[in-house]
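Before a colleague's protein record goes any further, I have to sign it off. What it holds is a sequence and that sequence's fold in token form. Would you go through it and say whether the fold makes sense for this chain? The record follows directly below this note.
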Amino acid sequence: MTGLVLDLFAGPGGWSVPLHRLGVREIGLEWDQWACRTRAAAGLLTVRTDVAMYPVRPFVCRTRGFIASPPCQAWSRAGKRLGLVDQPLVHQAVADLATGRDTREKLLAACRDERSLLAAEPMRYLHALNAVGEPEWIAMEEVPDVLPLWRQYAQILRGWGFSVWSGILNAADYGVPQTRRRAILLASRVRTAEPPPPTHARHEEPEGLFGPGRQRWMSMAEALGWGATDRPVPTVCAGGGPGGGPEPFPSGARKTLVAARERGTWAPHTSASPLVRQADWSWSLRSNNQTNATVRGIDEPAGTLFFGHRANECTWVARSDAPHTVAGAAPEPIRITAAEAGVLQSFPADYPWAGNRGQVFGQIGNAVPPRLAAHLLAPHLGRVLTADDFVLAA
């Protein structure tokens, strides 16, 4: 079957990166101007539009695959979660749209969060496409609390002849350096819908009778190119000033880890340089500023990172591993960079992000991890992924 892939709420390209690399024609509908600029810089075909207002007609008799990742802000634990309050209204909208009845205006007026009803928009498109036997396959993603809604979609789609699977997947099980859990719906007219087999696990598995075992979850250090075992350790320069050089993290400075390494102010703990005295530090990533924030060492995957929310700013924090440390030498917490955040979401290290820091973080936080997307899409596209298909670090 020929045709294009339609991607609703396409964002900066979480689904698009694997589609583009696999040579699949895709068109994304997206409203955010900075996400659209990022997509343009990445060479992705995009229509800047409000998905709720755009007509389905241009895609009828042209659509092979259908993707949707509605905005998660109304449902996310990082926000007020008014989507849960509005959930009965969203279910009603889905049920109505599945029969061709458009009650969105009335239901929207009753919603506590106007974004809640966007989760029903995929059904408007699917109802029109189903009339001509399209699409061949469907992939949708949202935060875990949306799973009951995906189950409603699944029931409707089965009535239309689709094989459907819905459930929760952990992105770390597919090589993403982040334990990001998401509600997934997969549907197909031509094959049994089922989740892709995990490629990674918390602990490395030995080879068995049926082939190699799963790899250990990818760590932040591996993804960022720091190496899983070659732990970066900040050096504390003796005395500062002439002969000693500047300290790597002067008081009040917020330097990035990567920049520090490039400046030469990182050194392995075996360094014997006469100009430095060593203190052993290990680095961890704190997922937000809250008291219950997840803190993971660089030899682990990150916790779920709510990039783009000011209250959930992610920072690198140092912990001493040595019984005796140099007084006053502990580096200050360091804000994660947008480039690092993108890699931890499994985007390519050189991805052409557009916008300022906040605009880029917002795009990253709302995107599907491309490496997870690749595994979800590959069976529908008749592809088998290899370990070299998606290299995270440049």
